[in-house]
Amino acid sequence: MSAETEPLLSVRGLTKHFPVRQGLRVTGAVRAVDGLDFDVRPGETLGLVGESGCGKTTTGRMLVRLLEPTSGSIMFAGRDITHGGRRELRALRQDLQIIFQDPYASLNPRHTVGRIVAMPLQVNRITPPGGVKRRVQELLELVGLNPEHYNRYPHEFSGGQRQRIGIARALALKPKLIVADEPVSALDVSIQAQVINLLRDLQRDLDLAFVFIAHDLAVIRHFCHRVAVMYLGKIVEIGDRDDIYTRPQHPYTRALLSAIPDVSTLGPAGRIRLTGDVPTPLNPPSGCRFRTRCWKATDHCATEEPALTTRDDGGQLTACHYPESGPVGVPTGEPGSNERT
Ligand SMILES: Nc1ncnc2c1ncn2[C@@H]1O[C@H](COP(=O)(O)OP(=O)(O)OP(=O)(O)O)[C@@H](O)[C@H]1O
Ligand code: SF4
Ligand SMILES: [Mg+2]
Fold first, then answer.
1. CA-to-CA distance for 223 and 269, rounded, in angstroms?
2. For 9-224, which CATH superfamily applies?
3. Does the CB atom of residue 321 touch ligand 2 within 6 A?
């Protein structure tokens, strides 16, 4: 994949503010996603990582247009899809699919697996060569399920198998990009690896692009080409996997990485424990949003928001006034007075 390849997905200034109402009056806004910029090239996997509530699902839902953006733009395959109408969206759904976190809630319990996987074909009035049933059975086989189980219901499958059904449904229209919103976090750890491996094989064999949403950096380590780390509605660091995992520059990325035992070079002693809760997106901190939990914060961090830009000699973009360097688990420089615990 060359760096010059035109992006398949290009997001600029993507923002979602949910209005907060008291009675009929709008009294504020939840700033769930606040000005994201990123690209995904054909066949590439971008990991979107951050703690609960940082805006990952909201971002994913805007990308597939299940949610209307407040502002910003989404270009997909050269088309502006930010505010497309119903007809445009139907065409879009063929190329752009989503896999949901919860394989239980996302499958209709009253429909057979055959009907669930066939649904996107029927909604789009597509009859594949050989017929719908044959195509569905091919898809079941592709995701490692028995094609003979076409007439079974979701409750007759395990959690991992149900997620495979969701994946087969997402593949039915041969999409170019799949948004996978924490597709393995509801599954047992032993099953997680199997489903991740399946997605990786599909990505390679079908030249699929992914936006892969995850809570932590452990899950996506071997799956993503590039990684974007989110905090409170913003991207704080984005870059190639190796830069993010071996030379992270943002303190928050370091804290997330130090929690992964085989990445942190210092073992439990090098773990950076973030104190305090994530602030509310109703009223995010001034300047750098991470400053209330950052051990390096200074007055400057409170007054000026750091731009997302290349820092020192790193290949990634980082939004921090005092970027880190050196191996993971070793915080460098202590500009502020906050203690690291
Ligand atoms: N429909 C909504 N109305 C108001 N606020 C919302 C709505 N949907 C999400 N939010 C808020 O937006 C913020 C981001 O939510 P989102 O679900 O995108 O986070 P997330 O990163 O996916 O979290 P998790 O890891 O728990 O799934 C949260 O503060 C959430 O409470
Ligand atoms: S050093 Fe300042 S700018 Fe950098 S992450 Fe900490 S608070 Fe934010
Ligand atoms: Mg979510």
1. 28
2. P-loop containing nucleotide triphosphate hydrolases (3.40.50.300)
3. yes
